[in-house]
């Protein structure tokens, strides 16, 4: 996908991302939970809600860094799986899925609780069966929502905005009227602080929604700014509202009445409103109360439906990501050919939700299990940030980082907070004696029901890993690298920076060697170049036989390598040559790269794309896709007259820093050469009060200079403002002698090995074009890391 | 100046199955240039039905299936909140001479739930629309 296409796919600005987050967060919890929370902690449940907000805020910071570093579907699951491998991936994947399913069931039961009082006055037979009635209502609505998502009935952004705005207005109205009527709080903390902490676990379900913003990271415009901002806003807004609602509720009606109500917000509204009857002439206090109660019921109905809907969709996204990483069968992720929905994943989630409602697990337990699974998830998310920061893989380049004053405080505090709440909600400080015959063991605590269900669900994830995922999902844990971080250069351990150059053409070899020498010179200490030439021998002839007949080719090989040695002497750089006769040039070069522990491999490219069998060429394709070190591809253009002007594309791609390093190396090694960093920005949109395109481009270049560690280098910057980035780049590039670009895509699939833009540059420009890709080292195992640490 | 109807066809494809059927139906006829178009349906401010990554996978699979039958076909991915509008936009960007599509049939109910894209495609297009018949078994 080219960069301009990527822009089109991003259709969420700050406001949209914020409303998506609010849409899942707001409402459902606050309409249902006040009674449960008041029962557990009294008015001090306000503190529980506030603490829930703090825990979420910490998680939002860590998630923002991870989401901008790896904008992939799956959110937390993906980050944990990537950083810590499929063992934890299985736990978090299943945990999130279970959490979302339990949350959906919770929302639906809440829906039933609120809907019934609306219906019972009018439908007689319902009144006699209110206990069953709310479960039936919950089941019907859950089935309906599953159907809606199965058929992919179109929900537009406008509808979502209407829902969110309605809810915010309702709750703000409730709050202001409630505050005006002068609530009085009785005993603030009747059950003590441990109860308050445990209640954080109960109410946390109303905070799990903001993660949805992270899972949409690849659809957010300007994610480095909008993603963290919208996440923080989507946590702070509901937190304030929740605390307020709790204050008004506990201050308006007695704790007993509140705790026993299934429709807490409705009865509070009915209590508040008659006091305002004098302001509304013509309405009796009782009528006003009835109106208020009904409005709150409608709000609750809207809120629970909207939250459950988002949960079902999010659950399907987790399934998709697990399937992609082979932790789950991909069968589940089939997209319906007509409705374009992940219909199987949605059906399964829907069925489990229905089962959970039907089984009759208490509504409080449903909420707590959902909270439990998400607290486990966020605890691991905080660990994942630390692992990724320390391991620092090349593909991890977050555009938002936790500010340095807050790191590692945020992840450590965040993980500790999650664990603290988990312990509080899972245990009762009642001694428990386990007696087997005459032996008895006394443990100082008992597990709560939630603790037991949560542990069973985690055990399920672990079992799943051993029985299914372990053999299928590639282990890619970075924990080893985090324990013993590798130095950035000379990672092979022998301290020599080695460039392997594949030479085949006497006309281009000098130029290739010059570039290799530039890279070698830039690395302090020992550096050397290994020049390789391969004589390819067709399969049907034996290697020895062919050699005798083809003395001419051998002579040419010798000439090539001889010339390479001369060039090396001129450039004052160490060079070894390797003459190879083999079946296949690509595997021969790859072998040399491996044997020599190369840090960079340099290849020439004709600047043509071969359509069918290969993308860029029979030797280039395999080397690019399989070499784990840096790869540089050089297309030689017209020779520079005197002062060579080198330009590097300063984009946001993962390999832009490598390209910038290469460019700087070439400029350093050439007299009179100059370096320009070029960035192209689309013109500013009128409505958004963002930074001007030029400033934004300058900031990106600045950022790149830091990432590439080029702060010592002299360079010029240039920002072009143009709608079509690709065309603008091609046009600007023609003004320079040499153009360096980073590979834009990470994996080598299908049509483009390096991404379409670098390849277009190579094919369309008659300049020297250098395409660079960073190393793709396979991660170190934990065992190797510990050994390395101990030796070190 | 009159234009050849088949100078450049924009051909919407939904997934691999649909792409194969469409390419099979198109293959029987002569045309100069063809671009397979896949529209990724965006939510426009709400959660998309499927993650972007999965949507783009669908596009890739559809194009591959299409090229299995018509190797020279070009391809284009469009992002739009409305599938049919997206097809029109792509046709305009490509300066396509016509849109050729393969109706997917199905019951009235299915078509209703889909929002009947075929009807909208035919009635609201700003250029010729060609409906391809079922492939003949010969």
Q: Which value, in Å, is the CA radius of gyration of chain A? A: 31 Å
Number of strand segments of chain A? 14
Oligomer: heterodimer
Number of domains of chain B: 1
CATH superfamily label of the largest domain in chain A: Amino acid/polyamine transporter I
User: How many individual domains of chain A?
Assistant: 3
What average pLDDT do the residues of chain A reach? Answer: 84
How many H/I helices of chain B? 5
CATH-scheme architecture of the largest domain in chain A = Up-down Bundle
Shape of chain B: globular
Structural class based on helices, strands and sheet pairing of chain A: alpha/beta
Q: Can I get a quick summary?
A:
The complex is a heterodimer of chains A (about 800) and B (about 140). By secondary structure, chain A is α/β, with parallel strands linked by helices.
Q: Please, could you describe this protein's structure?
A:
The complex is a heterodimer of chains A (792) and B (138). By secondary structure, chain A is of the alpha/beta class. Chain A has 3 domains: 9-480, Amino acid/polyamine transporter I (Up-down Bundle), CATH 1.20.1740; 487-635, Rossmann fold; 636-776, HUPs (Rossmann fold, 3-Layer(aba) Sandwich), CATH 3.40.50. In chain A, helix 20 crosses helix 25 (656-669) and helix 23 (585-595) runs parallel beside helix 24. Chain A starts with a helix and ends with a helix. In chain A, 51% of the residues are buried. Helix content of chain B is 41%, strand content 19%. Chain B has helices at 16-27, 52-69, 83-93, 108-114, 117-124; strands spanning 9-12, 34-41, 74-80, 98-101, 129-131. Chain B has one domain (9-131): 3-Layer(aba) Sandwich (Rossmann fold). Chain B has a 5-stranded parallel sheet, with helices on both faces. Chain B has 138 residues and is of the alpha/beta class. In chain B, helix 2 (52-69) links the parallel strand 2 (34-41) and strand 3. The mean pLDDT of chain B is 88. In chain B, helix 1 packs parallel to helix 2 and helix 3 packs across helix 5. Classes of the chains: A alpha/beta (792), B alpha/beta (138). The interface between A and B is large, with 47 and 33 residues.
